[in-house]
Design a protein that fits this description.
Two copies of one chain form a homodimer. The first copy, chain A, is built from eleven helices and 14 strands. Chain A is an alpha+beta fold.
Chain lengths: ~350, ~350
């Protein structure tokens, strides 16, 4: 195979994305956006071996890396307009460049987002660094710091699927490029249909997550949330961040946290700790937000379910209420430097 | 040494930068900029072992990585307002984090640029990915594509220092954290004072470059340039890009290209090919631009020297005129994937 030059690779990447909304797009020293420009910016990096492995086909890695960034912008009550893509490519990674970029382009198309620019470098380790630029949906952003005692705490969808999917990949379940998921040979015979179904949805939830790109801006536009963050490092960690930023504490009820469908029933058979993946599992990209509205009222106004899991209280720290009583919940989500 | 957590490292990084101009700065899901936001965005990545090595102390790596990005924004006729910083840190890189961030903060302070956000990850390879956000100085940006036959071609300052400095580092010259440069032991005795002086300025030019953050916006505001690019991959490569984008060719005169001071006199003694570093040396961050104005007129209007090195012609490709006659100049600068 002839090695591609940097300019060739840039051409191939550019060809996959729309660039409207950027009068000067990729290919000049910098991108220029249509007036009035963007007020919201976020950046996120995925490193091979740390944030993804060969167990995840390249198109899913591409999709997911953009989804994580869209989630950050959505959590501010903003809409992503454009993004910049930086790739560090290890030897051999060029072979999967089209798949990686293709997965990203599928999501960018779906969300109507333009590629504004980027950079390429060869690198001993493959990594993907994305910066997203967006517009506020309202005059003010949704910040982490706006929660007040008495507010209800919401999650936008069931939790635990992504961490369960990751655990299954580590156990040897295989995600194929076509999205099908197959069990490891050792358990293939005793993997029941419902088990396979759950494993398949959990692995796809991990590999091809969606961001709450409609809900975030809607919460901001209608002024329905007092604070908001996305669940990227796990509920326990991200709720602790929201509480710390807001200068308050929280009480949540385990039984009110919606688990990923069928997870509690089959967790043991799959060797998973359902409680741990729900409370601490990262890369969910659900929104975690606070609101003075009740659950039924809020779901009605939004035209979709959201789940009240507890309330904000004065003080600090998080208390978790379960059938066995109350206990302090410590952040136990993902810290990139704590392994 | 206790390992720092991600949040601890983020705190230490944030503490070094100003965040004004960003009502929501680092620490939330995304940054929010003061109205009207930014219309210009650029991104650039440096990878350890590819773009920098242990031969360059961390504070210079930090400075340089931001300078490269400021140069891209300046080349668009824009001013950088804020930046996002993504770091992939290999084991041990935490020890130099303060120096790396300190060098970057020195330049950010000097240029009045706020840190808007960022991301941290552990990584097998250390890398620095920066996205800069800026404002146009005029209604229209300076693009690569505006050069027309008859325009004069300018460089904003002497060339070749950075590539000479890199070559000297590879020969064993040492750049110390305090900025002093010492010869390798093998030649220490015969390295004359002028030679050491030149080596010192060249190595510092390589490690601590400045971007044309005043000139770029000035050219745009006063409508003095028809096209502009920064010399990041070498004059031959970047001029070829400008010509290709503009659909024209160029004739340049070697004797009119200003070489880095004292380089021609001492190149041989230092084992350098002066002509090659001037024509093809990258990471200069000079501006390369075209204008219909004459050199004396333009330098007068700008209140600083700029150097006419040739002219834009119809057709394609670059012709280099020397004492020995004319020859085609092929791009021979840095391609990240052509080693």
């Amino acid at each position: 195979m002839t090695r591609l030059s940097e300019d060739d690779m840039l051409e191939r990447i550019r060809a996959r994305f729309r660039t409207s909304g950027t009068p000067v797009g990729p290919g000049d020293d910098a991108a220029v956006l249509d007036p009035p420009g963007c007020r919201v910016a976020s950046t996120d990096v995925l490193v091979e071996g740390i944030d993804f492995t060969g167990a995840i086909p390249a198109r899913f890695v591409g999709w997911k890396s953009l989804a994580a960034n869209l989630s950050d912008i959505a959590a501010m009550g903003a809409r992503t307009r454009a993004f910049l893509l930086t790739l560090g490519l290890a030897d051999g990674a060029e072979a999967t460049l089209d798949d990686l970029v293709g997965g990203m382009a599928d999501l960018a198309d779906e969300e109507g987002i333009a590629l504004a620019g980027g950079d390429l470098s060869s690198s001993p380790t493959t990594f993907i660094s994305i910066t997203t630029l967006g517009d506020l949906a309202a005059d003010s952003p949704l910040e982490r710091s706006g929660a007040r005692p008495g507010d209800r705490i919401y999650v936008s969808r069931p939790l635990g699927g992504s961490a369960a999917g990751l655990a299954l990949l580590r156990q040897g379940w295989v995600l194929r490029p076509d999205g099908s998921v197959v069990p490891p040979e050792s358990i293939a015979e005793r993997a029941s249909f419902p088990l396979r179904e759950l494993a398949g949805s959990a692995v796809r939830q991990h590999a091809m997550p969606t961001a709450e790109t409609t809900l975030g801006p809607m919460l901001a536009e209608r002024n329905l949330a007092t604070a908001c963050i996305d669940v990227s490092d796990g509920l326990s960690t991200d709720l602790a961040r929201l509480c710390r930023a807001s200068g308050c504490g929280a009480i949540i009820e385990f039984l009110r946290i919606p688990p990923f469908p069928d997870l509690p029933e089959h967790a043991v058979a799959l060797g998973l700790d359902a409680r741990s993946v729900v409370l601490h599992g990262g890369e969910e990209y659900a929104l975690l937000f606070t609101s003075s509205k009740r659950e039924s009222e809020l779901s009605g106004m939004l035209g979709r379910p959201v789940y009240a899991i507890g309330r904000i209280v004065a003080g600090e720290g998080i208390v978790l209420e379960t059938d066995d009583g109350s206990a302090r919940l410590e952040p136990a989500g993902f810290d990139h430097f704590a392994r």
